[in-house]
Amino acid sequence: MTSPTTPAPAPVWLPAWEAADGAARVRALFTATFDAEPAGTFSAPGRVNLIGEHTDYNGGLALPIAIEHRTWAAVSLREDSRVRLVSAQGQGVWECDLDEVAPGTVQGWGAYLAGVAWALRQSGRTVPGFEVAVDSCVPFGAGLSSSAALEASLAIGLDSLLGLGLGGDDEGRVVLAAACVRAENEIAGAATGGMDQAASLRARDGFALALDCLDSSVHHEPFAPEGCELLVIDTRAPHSLNDGQYASRRATCDAAAEALGVPTLRHWLDAAEGGVDGAVAAADAVLTDDVARRRVRHVLTEIDRTRRAHVAMRAGDWGAFGVLMDASHTSLRDDYEVTVPELDVAVEAARAAGALGARMTGGGFGGSSIALVPAGTSAAVADAVVAAYADHGFGAPAFLTSRAAGPAA
Ligand code: GLA
User: Where does the Galactokinase N-terminal domain start and stop, copy by copy (predicted)?
Assistant: First the structure.
């Protein structure tokens, strides 16, 4: 505990880079590393999920926005099948032969990029080797989809340089997003559900992406909350989606759906009588394990909350939206058990400082919380979070704000 006389440190803010700055950085890194000019520079955003967490791999609904923080990639194609990658955040050049990439053959950050090319090949496209330099202002391991931004920046780059014609419309971007998901699931070994790649490739500037993961359909909902702003709190608590916890949540849901005799938990919700309460009660009657019951209760109620949050968003009812954010966090904390104390304290401090609603965003187990706060109060809410972290003896968090930004380009 700090004494009342110890002032809390000033909040650390993570600004998004200007587009010209991001492009210049990767051009310079490319030239310095590969001694040539890149054929093109591309970028893709991280995301904040406003609500609808751990629903994507259950055929559910999610409501993310792309953020202004992006990953840049300078890319050139090669005539052979070599892949050579350099990152401003890494050390040295990461190399492999694309012909040898297969599940289980490559490790490290380069797997996310080599995996995209591998997946495009798997979908029947001819993809040669390439050189890439990347740099990013999406904080790593912050639950803001730095890996999807990395994948999408190359996917859109290969699409453009190879003339695949996929980036020009949403139908093509669905194909690019699917390649990024395969890269992450099969080559990088993280069993994630696809929401992040959809947000990075299919979002629209100024809109939230209402994503239906049952059929991958999207609806673009204007998102510029009047009288409010979105504050993102990067807890800086360690976060990883391939350490088994995420996969174990997913496995529990898959097993529950099988026990309930449905392809996904979304099917169970939609078929149940008596709405979400009826669906939860009916699942409780079939499932014998208390943990499975709580996991399923989270998924069913979260899909229902996301549906209602979309309605509140459309009506501009930010008070109602905030209440649903709060309920989402409680469910993720108590039923799905994916929060950590740093996420909970950020949410509680933000609410106490006037947020309309606050919740963790992304996979959890570390990462970021978000708060919908009255316009002009982000700095004061950040001060309150910093003070609460100091009181709890946590390391300093970092903060960012974002509007709903545009997709990979
Ligand atoms: C991570 C995964 C997503 C999704 C969220 C939880 O961000 O990458 O697919 O499952 O967790 O909603």
Answer: 29-76
